[in-house]
Write a structure and sequence with these properties.
7 helices, alpha+beta, 9-stranded antiparallel beta sheet, 346 residues
Length: 346
């Protein structure tokens, strides 16, 4: 938990990712969340969300409202006012339930605009069910396990799988010495967040082993519910792309794309500066050629996040509308429609 004052302002990271970070690090703080027209607060106590508030909602409804906002700025401060947990929900449950409450949020009257137009809230995809072969979980994914009678979900990690047969998980620490208690559980509920998608499914315990380490086998899910946290779906791709930064032409790879933005992988192009910090919020021209399309596409993007991973820079980019140039948007939309049939949702 925090034992000293915390402060600072964060941009370029999704609110969902930041909430997970606060939970993992067991922080005690207040997150002040700003958009152009909205303001809200999320109160953490030892990594648990205990309360929320906006200009028009309180408690859990305020959390659902805040989670519906896009392009937020997060300010971190002390929590010296909220010590009672009035939410009594895990972060995973809050994220899942926020999708179901989104329609209610849209019906609320708009807050005072203070001279600024509010505009419509973005549409979000409803929870959908997929076949079990669509379980896109990577080894190392953090999982939350719950079942009837348990007050809070247990945390585990996916360490292996045989598609169609079983998943292999680390045995949660609290059951490490009482493995037999797990065998009394008939149905497990597993949830995880993977690359902007919440996965949830039911399973059953198959077996527990103690050597060489504490591991549990659970049945491979027959059906999986998933909900996209992004306002637009992303699709996997591998397309050569060229961008221009500070007068330098840099060649990289387009790794995924959606109607609102994309993710790029580029080589580290300078050792003279903190590249991720210098890239965030930069407006960058891009060009590439989509497979199956004759015309090369030129577009502008604003870098919303950047990090170094395995000696490359991974940049999250938001497309910038160019009213005088409709062709780039049309080509992107045509390409998305073409790959929709392949189901490459990230």
């Amino acid at each position: 938990m925090y034992s000293s004052p915390v402060s600072g302002q964060i941009t370029g990271i999704s609110l969902t990712s930041f909430l997970q970070m606060m939970e993992t690090e067991e922080k005690t703080c207040t997150l002040k969340v700003f958009t152009r027209n909205n303001f809200g607060r999320i109160f953490f106590l030892n990594g648990v969300i205990v309360d929320g508030a906006t200009t028009r909602s309180e408690n859990v409804q305020a959390l659902y409202e805040i989670l519906s906002w896009d392009d937020v700025v997060i300010e971190v401060g002390k929590n010296d006012s909220r010590t009672e947990n009035v939410i009594n929900l895990s972060l995973m449950d809050i994220l899942m339930d926020s999708a179901q409450h989104y329609d209610e949020i849209k019906q609320l009257p708009p807050p005072p605009d203070n001279g600024h137009p509010s505009g419509p809230l973005p549409e979000k995809e409803l929870v959908r069910t997929t076949a079990n072969e669509d379980l896109h979980m990577e080894i190392g994914a953090r999982l939350f396990i719950s079942f009837d009678g348990m007050a809070a979900p247990l945390q585990s990690t996916l360490v292996g799988m045989e598609p169609g047969r079983y998943l292999l998980l680390k045995t949660p620490a609290m059951f490490a010495k009482v493995d037999h208690d797990l065998f009394k559980v008939k149905d497990l509920i597993i949830k995880s967040i993977v690359k902007g998608t919440i996965y949830a499914f039911r399973s059953k315990l198959v077996d527990i082993i103690s050597k060489p380490m504490k591991l549990m086998f659970i049945e491979y899910p027959r059906k999986i519910e998933q909900h996209e946290l992004r306002s637009d779906k992303r699709y996997k791709c591998s397309i050569g792309i060229q961008m221009q930064v500070n007068g330098k032409k840099i060649t990289g790879t387009l790794e995924n794309i959606g109607k609102g933005g994309c993710r790029c992988s580029i080589p580290i192009f300078s050792i003279q500066e903190n590249i991720p910090d210098s890239l965030v919020n930069a407006v960058v021209p891009f060009k590439c050629a989509f497979p199956g399309f004759k015309d090369e596409i030129h577009f502008l993007g604003k870098v919303k996040s950047a990090k170094i991973k395995e000696e490359r820079i991974i940049a999250g980019v938001q497309f910038i509308d160019q009213p005088d140039q409709e062709k780039p948007q049309a080509l992107i939309q045509d390409y998305l429609q073409m790959i929709e049939c392949f189901g490459q949702n990230v």
